[in-house]
Amino acid sequence: MQAAVRPALCFGLLIPGLEHLLSVRNLGKTFSGPRSKTVLEGISLELGARDYIAVMGESGIGKSTLLNLVAGLERPDAGQIVFDGRDIGALDDDALTLMRRRDMGFVFQAFHVLPYLSVTQNVALPLLLNGVADAKLGARVAAMLDAVRLGAEAQAMPRELSGGELQRVAIARALVHRPRLVLADEPTGNLDQESASQVLSLLRQCVKDSGAAGILVTHSPAAAATADRVCMLSAGGLLADVGMS
What we know:
alpha/beta, Rossmann fold, 5-stranded mixed β-sheet, 11 strands, disordered N terminus
């Protein structure tokens, strides 16, 4: 039998005077089937602009599910998610797709860099999808590549890059369209320690510089320590602010 779970709040470091960019209240998710499993229950958190939090927990505990719910990729069974003044639960699939394309950026453990496109072409994709004019596109891509220290590799192909460089391409692509929220799911899981440290530092810096909010999902204490605040997702589904930073 599932242990009782009490609601808990995990707050980032909010900037005085700013409303919450993301508000999650009493979120719950159960996967049905022969062995029904509740993975999230009573989850609440709030983020403002430039908040950057880490969510820790063991593999399979529901960290990625939480990101999927925030992104509108899955629907919760209970609770409410309000992003940038919009109730995600009230949006249809088309509106959710548009919201993700315009207002969210994603960084995953697998780089998802398209092998047949150059670094510049990969990073430009979100701008092309959002209809940014050609006159502005080149400058914005170049500025983003400089921010992740890949300006010299602008015309390189993915096969010519290291794992750490590929993840920096992914960060540039996730942020080039200036999203309001950045969701990173184990972004350094495939990297060595030195590359992971560099990528995490750049990810934090870029989120802060762009004025976005960020959620980093990780099982690594070292990765979590780069965030403003750290939340722990337990087997019971409780998200608690553990204040590691």
